Structures are given as structure tokens and as C-alpha cells.
Amino acid sequence: MFIPAAAVAQTRDEVTIVRPPQATLVLDRDEGLLGEIGPQVRNWVRLVDLPPYVGQAFVATEDRRFYQHDGVDVLGVMSALRDNLVRLGGRPRGGSTITQQLVGAMNLVDRREISMSRKLREAELARALERRHTKSEILEAYLNYINFGHGWFGIEAASRHYFGKRAADLTLPEAATLAALPKSPVQYDPRAHRAAALRRRNTVLRLMAGQRYITEAALRSALAQPARVAPDDGFSVRAPWVVEWVRQWLAGRYGLTAVNTGGFVVTTTVDPRLQEAANAALERGLARVESMPGYRWPRYGTPAARATAGHTPYLQGLLVAMEPQTGNVLALVGGRDFRDSEFNRAVQGVRQAGSAFKPFVYATALTQGVLPTTILQDAPISLPGGRGQRYAPENSDGFFRGPITMRDALAQSINVPAVRLALSVGLDSVVATARRLGLTTEIPPYAPTAIGAADVRPIELIAAYCAFATLGAYTPPRVVTLVQDAGGLPVYEAPVLAPAQVLEARVAFQLVSILQDAVERGTGTAARRAVQPEVPLAGKTGTTNDNADVWFVGFTPNLVAGVWLGFDRPQSIARGAFGGTLAAPIWGLFAGAAYRNLAVPAPWQPPPGLVAVRVRRRDGGYAPSDSSDATYTEYFVEGSEPTARGIAQRVMRRLRLWSPLR
């Protein structure tokens, strides 16, 4: 039996009402319920904060002479005895008052014991409570102590789970539905036995009218209301990894005992509609991968995929969505099945980033003044490696393309030019860029790092892309905005952080322009196809060696999201598994659903100091009068753009160099 620590005073002279342990509530940004933390689901609510008809419904049903007796209703006991004698052999009717029920709910007596001595002790303690407390205090405690079924204790928990609202917002028919439950939480469960619950609710309403707590007009109106309960046990959306993340954050700040028993109310940044979209997109996308021809690993939900000791042999995934201007985490899915594994792969995990790391290389180059039209060499290269080995990076398709513009090298996610570029601008500089954008894991300054060989924490990688979406401004990710104590007083309010400008705005815009190409005509087209065409979109795929990790991190001006798929113990997902074919479609499913609710943002605009020039796609050459598909608009930092005069001067210099007179 669970015995609250508060209910230790059991002598007649000491008995008093003490608040029991209360769960911590975790709410979404709209104050919908995400979850509760603690061994018992209960949150205390004051009687004065409830509509009057809530307490009246219980009094009318459970103890009509509550305001007249001293804790024991002698008339009620005599009536119960008479009825039980008349109905010999039937179910006995109790005569317990609300105060006596409270004594039992507080575990001051064991109500499972059927004996005269228990009844006498219960009556004695009930009278002692009445001498020490007012009727309002007793009714308030009763409403907060009693069991409403499903492990939900107290009127606040019952209201949230049965109706998806605070007890302060209960309607009269809802209050009557809950007042039916003390008689039998199982028989009158409005979720499982709707017809029986409705009949009992209507009985409660008629009792209230008969005792003049409500008018005949209010009775008729309430009786006409259909019986409704909140879907999904009153949770706004399922977000177990968010709740666990919040629990760990709170425990580090206030201690686990306070979190489990203190009744904190935590408001998070989670958008329930985006969280639902994230849940659905990841679930659907993972099932799609497992149904692909040639997939040979245990499929989720089959006997072969049964988890053991927290290890899941089936394909895992994560999805994180953020608001780039604030760092607010709008949705987070840290795995596939929280019951199998509570490990939060988004926050606690580290994985290789693959090509999703390349934007840090290119941002470094652009910062150093390298032009987007610079020609890079996609040709074999052999570098000194560890232990006397040589490192020879390859492209995913096994081909080398020769000269290629920096824009196309990133948009097409070509490996060898990225390595060459990183060596040119300095690997220490690349690491420094990643650090400025919020990556905290160890990033060694070695050539393989340029194409994502270093481990990263997924939420940090995704948050780094926020600096691209905002044209250079970075704010760390956050999930908690407000913590209130059980009395409603704030004990923590998230500070308003000024974003740090970690990239020069012109550089960030140049990079965004290239990453827009990556989704329009590069490796991320699956994401672009799934999202409404009016939504401006950019992003980058990522795939690691042996196809063990696949990524897509995409962004718009008002949304950044990242998807990862892989196994907890890294192994190849499938032959030909790439971020563009597995992760990008999931990202597209999520973003397409998200923009059915989010406002479509205006496209990124080039900041001052950038010059738009028409150039050839093939080699980045100046082509001001060519508007064909063979050309496009490139953006140059003012003073670095190609001009007709500059081209003529370069031609003349070359002619002089070639002159036979020299």
C-alpha cells in the first residue's frame, strides 16, 4: 500500500489534513498536458478556484447532510443499516460521510478491513478532523485525495485526463460525471462504460436539482449535453522524450525528490501540432524504410525485434524541430518506442554527421572570401593518415567530376572537393566555425572531419542550422520557458537571450542560396517535392560510411528541423541508403504537415553589401546577357563580383603573358 508521508499523524488529537505528494506537470506552449512526473498522479487545487457546482455535485451524491453532521452522519448510518437488513444477501450500502471517506483516502485507516473496530476508529478520526478543520477545508481535501480511477488522484488530475482541461474549467455535466466515480471508478468510467457513466451522471444532476444546488433550467440544459471525454487520456500530444528531458533538467536544478513530489508546473516550448506531425512523419517514414525491397534487419513490432535491457535491434530515428529566432524546441522525438528505450537519441546521443557537416566547411571558406563560383577539383587525392596509412577520400558514387564550382560541389554533396577546400581554408578554422555555431563534441582537425567523420550531438547539429536560417544569428536550443511551484509562483523564467551573430549576414545568405540549390536540384529534392512550393526551403543531406547514419537537416526562415535514421549499434541500414532517399522524405512529410498550420514566411532577402550577377552554371563565368537555364544568379560580396571590365583586364594580362616579345 502506498502511504503518503503526510499521513503519519494517526492519533485522535494529532490528526490533521496535510497535502500529499504532488506530481510535476509538464505542459506544452498552449498549456496542454504533455505528461506528469512522480509516483502518484495528483495535483492540489483550491476549492475557491473551482466552480461552486463541482463541490456541490459531490456533496449531493456522497453526503447530502455534509454541512449538518459532525463527521459521522448518524441518520445516514441508520438508513444504511435499514436498507442492508431489507436487502439481505445483496451488496451492502455504506453510510460513510465525505469526512470518513477522506480519513480512508488519507490512509489513516485501512478501508479494506471489514470490521466494527475499523468503522469506530474511522468515525473517531472523522470527528477529530471536523473539530480541527472547516467544512470547506475538508471538502477541498476530499476532492484532492480521492481516487478517480486509472491511477488519477484528485479532481485536477481527473479533469485533465478525462476532459483535457483544468478542474477550474469543468462544466456542470463534467463535474457531475466525476462526482459519479467515487461510487465505482470502474463501473462508471466514462471512457470504458459511456452509457453507464451517462446514466449515473444524470442521476447526480437530478440529485443536485432535488437538493436545490441547480435550477430546473440548468438541469434540463445539463441533461441534454452528450457524454464526451478527451481523446488520448487528455494528453495534448505524446512527447515522452520531451517529458524525460524536462525531468532530468529539473532534477539537476531542484533535486529528484522535489521533482517527484513538489507539484511543479513546467511550461515548455513544444507546439502540440508540430509534435504530432513529427510523431506521425517519423513513424510513417521508418515503416516505409523497413518495407523497402532488400531490407534485412528485424522489423519493428515483430518478435525478432523485441527489445532486451534497453537495446533495440530495430531501426531507430529522431526528429527535432526548432524556431530559429529563439532556439525554442517546437517538437522532439528521441526514438521509436519510449517503452522499449527511454534513451533520448536527439539530446543524449552522438553520431557521425556525414555530409550534413559540410556547410561548416563552406561557411568557413565564404568567410575567408572564397567565391561561390570558385572552381574546386574533384580528382583523386591521397593524404597521410594514421598509423602509416594513407587517406584517400572517395565520392559516394565512385566517380570524379574534375573541375566543379564550389556551389555545385556542396549542392551535389561531392566529398573530395569538400576535403580539398577544408585543407585550403584550414581545418582548425573549420572546427572554430562549428564551435561558434554551438557544436560542443570533440571535432578533431583531420581531413575526414570535413565530410562528417566527427561525432556530433544531433540537437546541436540541428540548432547550428538555425544560424543559417536567421542569416547568421544563433540562439542555443531551449525547451523550458517557465517553472511554477505548487502554489503557482514562478521559480524559474527562461531568460530572453540576445542572439549571437556567429556568421556575417552576407556569408550566411550566400550559404543559404547554395543550400537552396541542394533541395531544388541537388541531393535534397525529396524534401522540396513534399513541401508546399510557396515555402522557401534550403537544407543538406548527410550519409556516413557504410550507410550507417542518414540525415536531412532542412530549414525555412521560421522553421529548422532535422531527421536522423540509424541503428543504436551502427550498421549499414541498407544498400544504397542515403540521406536524400531515407531522411529527406520524412523531413518533407513533417514540414508539409507543419505548414498547414504555420504561416508561410517571406523568402530570404540578400542583405546590404551583396551584388547579384548572372553567371554560367558550368564554370561560374560572367554571363550578364544570358537568361537561359545554363545560367543562374549568383551573389557576391560587393567588390568581389565579376564585371565586364574585370574580365577584359584579365584577358589583357593573359595576352601580355603570352606575347612573343616577352
Itemize the secondary structure elements and their pairings:
Blueprint (H helix, E strand, L loop, with lengths): L23 E4 L5 E5 L3 E2 L9 H11 L11 H13 L11 H8 L10 H17 L2 H11 L6 E2 H10 L8 H8 L14 H17 L5 H8 L16 H15 L1 H6 L3 E4 L3 H19 L25 E7 L6 E5 L17 E2 L5 H10 L7 E4 L4 E2 L5 E2 L10 E4 H6 L3 H11 L1 H10 L18 E2 L1 H7 L1 H4 L3 E2 L5 E5 L5 E4 L6 E2 L3 H16 L4 H6 L7 E6 L5 E8 L2 E8 L12 H16 L15 E7 L14 E7 L6 H15 L4
Helix pairs in contact: 1-7, 1-8, 3-4, 3-5, 7-8, 8-9, 12-21, 13-15, 13-16, 13-19
Short description:
The chain has 662 residues and is of the alpha+beta class.
Provide key terms for this protein:
Beta-lactamase, 662 residues, 22 strands, disordered N terminus, disordered C terminus, elongated, Penicillin binding protein transpeptidase fold, 22 helices, alpha+beta, five-stranded antiparallel β-sheet, five-stranded mixed β-sheet
What does this structure look like?
It contains 22 helices and 22 strands. The strands form 8 sheets. It has a 5-stranded mixed β-sheet with strand order 2-1-5-15-16. The protein has a 5-stranded antiparallel β-sheet with strand order 7-6-20-19-18, sandwiched between helices. A two-stranded parallel sheet has the order 3-4. Residues 1-9, 88-93 and 654-662 have low confidence and may be disordered. Among the domains are: 41-234, Orthogonal Bundle (Penicillin binding protein transpeptidase fold), CATH 1.10.3810.10; 351-456, 3-Layer(aba) Sandwich (Beta-lactamase); 610-658, no CATH class. The longest helix is centred in the middle third of the chain and has 19 residues, at 272-290. By secondary structure, the protein is α+β, with helices and mostly antiparallel strands.
